[in-house]
Amino acid sequence: MGDAAPESGPSGFWDGKKPAAVLKHELLRRYLPVFVSKTGSTSPDGRVVYFDGYAGEGRYKDNSEGSPLIAVQVARQQAAQSSPRRLGIFLTEKQRAVFHRLSAILREEASDVTVVLKHGDVAKHVNDVIDFARSYPLFAFLDPYGTGLSYEAVLTLLNGRPRSTKTEVLMNFSAHLVRRVDRANEKKLRNIDRVCGGSWWRTVFFRHHSPSRGTDAVVADYRLRVCRDTGCGSWVVPVRNHESHEPVYYLVFFSRHRDGLWAFGEALSLAMTEWRRACWKRATTTTDEQPSFGFEDELFRDRERKLEREWVETITANLAALIERESAPFSVIAKYPEIMGETLGLARGKHIREAIKRLHGEGLTSTEGKGRIDTMVIRPPRS
């Protein structure tokens, strides 16, 4: 990682996905169809645009798909719906060799999908993307290896069109880039200044004795600044290659729409399951001398069931405390962070529903837990 690192990744990067890549791609695979379907329902001709600013090679050597081919799959699936959506894909890639490999893959595998592929620095194509998207909904995925897009360019993506036009951004904010910074390396300091929109982050980072805590604080402030300057809500997801490791990067999601923020949380919960599965497989992979009989898969499922029971217990306790504290009924979405507590980003709507039904059965709420969960109103028990 560093200024000289290729934005498409180091040697061996494309051999196969590590758990961190599994998480971001599963999140994209699960959230992008929701965005396309929902926003396309009110867009002229069902048109939606996906922008991938650091497209990469498109496919790993183990044949798993990178983000461009995930988007191609989504475009194809959405076009086949009874109420079709038309997803246009705009890709940029800076590394010439990677660009040519991706171009060849797209010619073979995406001839039936509208794809624009541009060579060069993503920053030089931001305005091209805005022109391409026009008034259609736009989802931008920014996943660099190393230094990311400037703060000003991120704001251009989010603010460059009328706010009534649906725009969302999912971006990779490098933890390594900040955590390993050297006070004496002014070039790297200025690179982070560019990403953060100023030198404010230096004060935030260096006042912490722990680089990890300093990095967490920088990402938290970055998130708040973008939200302030764009009117967006947000999620921040620390992404690791193992449960005990420090984050490799943070995925930061921005949306102005409550439905988008809710749907992202649902997609994140499902993607986290696949991340845990990838971590589990790495930890339990057997050698040729130690054949597997499938016990590991059953152990993983047992572990997941235990986690889900714990989440429901936590959410049930949080809801019970809220019902006791609040003087008036409240909706799930209005109290979402308080309801989820430490399960935020792990549990999802089905776990909230189970908790509500449990409380209803115990006579602690008159809400039965039926119907749409995010807008569900939690009411005290009937007298």
Largest sheet: 7 strands, mixed
Counting H and I runs of at least 4 residues, what is the number of helices? 13
Percent helix: 40-55%
Tell me the name of the CATH class of the largest domain.
Alpha Beta
Full CATH superfamily name of the largest domain: Vaccinia Virus protein VP39
Q: Reading side by side through the largest sheet, how are the strands ordered?
A: 3-2-1-4-5-7-6
Terminus-to-terminus distance: 62 Å
* Shape estimate: globular
Rg of Cα set: 22 Å
The pLDDT mean sits at: 93
Q: Give the number of domains.
A: 2
The fold-level CATH name of the largest domain is: Rossmann fold
As residue ranges, the low-confidence spans are: 1-7
- How are helices and strands ordered from N to C? HEHEHEHEHEHHHHEEHHEHHE
Task: Find the structural class using helix and strand composition.
Answer: alpha/beta
What's the architecture of the largest domain, going by CATH? 3-Layer(aba) Sandwich
Tell me how many strands there are. 9
Percent of residues in beta strands?
5-15%
In short:
The protein has 383 residues and is an alpha/beta fold.
What this model shows, in words?
By secondary structure, the protein is α/β, with parallel strands linked by helices. Residues 1-7 have low confidence and may be disordered. α1 (19-40) packs parallel to α2 (67-79), α8 packs antiparallel against α9 (211-230) and α11 (295-325) packs across α13 (349-361). α5 links the parallel β4 and β5 (167-174). The chain folds into two domains: 19-264, Rossmann fold, CATH 3.40.50.150; 280-285 and 297-378. The protein has helices at 19-40, 67-79, 96-109, 126-133, 151-159, 175-179, 186-196, 200-206, 211-230, 258-284, 295-325, 336-340, 349-361, and strands spanning 47-52, 86-93, 115-119, 138-142, 167-174, 233-239, 249-255, 330-331, 377-378. The strands form two sheets. The chain has a seven-stranded mixed sheet, sandwiched between helices.
